[in-house]
């Protein structure tokens, strides 16, 4: 198995195993008729990465409601009027030679936050923010404040909203749907006992804490039919691995992730990440998340992708060749190098195809 071998997910053929990870651009309008819709920045950004040679391009975290956004400048897809702008974006990605995918999610207690270059903290309601909601009234930290605990009716409505947004994404032309169940956002918040202290059917034991995640998966699967479904998950809260606790809890653990993966055959592909739900110091390093993908693959047989400080062609190639993951996701490197996939292919001696319009520049080297 090689990095530039094709891969097929639920009948969808993808030209290689180097995929663009979803990376928030924080560039959508925060109010008005175009709130949350892709604009010229997104068209340029994602179109250029599609031309850059990635097999699949995943559009950034897109809120299932305006209140589900991470920041006031994040994307939203939740009504028919949003579809044309997203359809243009999906079409540009496909025209560039990549498969268009989109990540949908709800930020929960980590929503209504500032864009990174303006600071770190909550945006007040008076400044365009909103009241955040979560499984329990427990804040991530002091800077993001305390959310309101969701009612049972809000939980079931949110599940339906996930399904609606996924269906709209398919109507817009996206060929794969990714659910954001990682990095401390709402789906992850339900999984972890650090953030979910509910005593009803949506909390408590493993079955209760995973109910929301599982119900979202099944509702979305029903809504999108045979379109490939990807789930991004944080394999661990990193409390067990760092021999620490948070308010007496060891948080979400790898063993629980493995159990959940086994229980959800509706998911075609798992995008394995870690952390984000607890303020804990993660021991990062090159490929630090790869062992989690490897363990999940070995113990469940699931198809996986992985990211996390994978910064060169050799490193990425080894991850796939040694079957630590089926796919390597590239994020930060691609922010400043949109053609990194074609460059790595050339470094590895793979045939590199270019759009006809660029051949003069390639042949004159």
TrEMBL record:
<dbReference type="GO" id="GO:0050661">
    <property type="term" value="F:NADP binding"/>
</dbReference>
<keyword id="KW-0560">Oxidoreductase</keyword>
<dbReference type="Pfam" id="PF00724">
    <property type="entry name" value="Oxidored_FMN"/>
</dbReference>
<dbReference type="GO" id="GO:0010181">
    <property type="term" value="F:FMN binding"/>
</dbReference>
<dbReference type="InterPro" id="IPR013785">
    <property type="entry name" value="Aldolase_TIM"/>
</dbReference>
<dbReference type="GO" id="GO:0003959">
    <property type="term" value="F:NADPH dehydrogenase activity"/>
</dbReference>
<dbReference type="InterPro" id="IPR001155">
    <property type="entry name" value="OxRdtase_FMN_N"/>
</dbReference>
<dbReference type="InterPro" id="IPR044152">
    <property type="entry name" value="YqjM-like"/>
</dbReference>
<keyword id="KW-0288">FMN</keyword>
<protein>
    <submittedName>
        <fullName>NADPH dehydrogenase</fullName>
        <ecNumber>1.6.99.1</ecNumber>
    </submittedName>
</protein>
<keyword id="KW-0521">NADP</keyword>
<feature type="domain" description="NADH:flavin oxidoreductase/NADH oxidase N-terminal">
    <location>
        <begin position="3"/>
        <end position="344"/>
    </location>
</feature>
<keyword id="KW-0285">Flavoprotein</keyword>
């Amino acid at each position: 198995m090689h990095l530039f071998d094709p891969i097929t997910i639920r009948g969808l053929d993808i030209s290689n195993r180097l995929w663009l990870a979803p990376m928030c651009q924080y560039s959508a309008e925060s109010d008005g008729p175009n709130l949350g819709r892709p604009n010229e920045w997104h068209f340029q950004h994602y179109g250029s990465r599609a031309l850059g040679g990635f097999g699949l391009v995943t559009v950034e975290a897109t809120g299932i409601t305006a209140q589900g956004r991470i920041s006031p400048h994040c994307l939203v897809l939740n009504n028919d009027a949003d579809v044309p702008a997203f359809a243009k974006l999906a079409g540009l990605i496909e025209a560039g030679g990549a498969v268009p995918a989109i990540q949908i999610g709800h930020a929960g207690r980590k929503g209504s936050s500032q864009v990174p270059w303006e600071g770190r903290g909550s945006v007040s309601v008076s400044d365009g923010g909103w009241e955040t909601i979560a499984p329990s009234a427990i804040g991530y930290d002091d800077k993001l404040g305390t959310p309101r605990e969701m009612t049972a009716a809000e939980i079931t409505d949110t599940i339906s909203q996930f399904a609606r947004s996924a269906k709209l994404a398919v109507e817009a032309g996206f060929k794969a749907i990714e659910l954001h169940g990682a990095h401390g956002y709402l789906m992850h918040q339900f999984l972890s006992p650090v953030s979910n202290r509910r005593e009803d059917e949506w909390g408590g034991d493993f079955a209760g804490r995973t109910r929301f995640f599982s119900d979202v998966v099944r509702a979305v699967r029903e809504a999108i039919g045979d379109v490939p479904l990807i789930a991004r998950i944080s394999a661990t809260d990193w409390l067990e691995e760092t021999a620490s606790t948070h308010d007496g809890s060891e948080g979400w653990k790898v063993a629980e992730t493995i159990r959940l993966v086994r229980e959800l055959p509706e998911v075609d592909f798992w995008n394995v990440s870690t952390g984000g739900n607890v303020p804990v110091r993660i021991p990062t390093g090159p490929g630090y998340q790869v062992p989690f993908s490897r363990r999940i693959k070995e113990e469940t047989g699931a198809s996986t992708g992985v990211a996390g400080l994978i910064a060169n062609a050799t490193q990425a190639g080894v991850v796939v060749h040694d079957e630590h993951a089926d796919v390597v996701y590239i994020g930060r490197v691609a922010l400043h190098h949109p053609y990194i996939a074609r460059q790595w292919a050339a470094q590895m001696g793979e045939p590199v195809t270019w759009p006809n319009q660029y051949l003069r520049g390639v042949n004159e080297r």
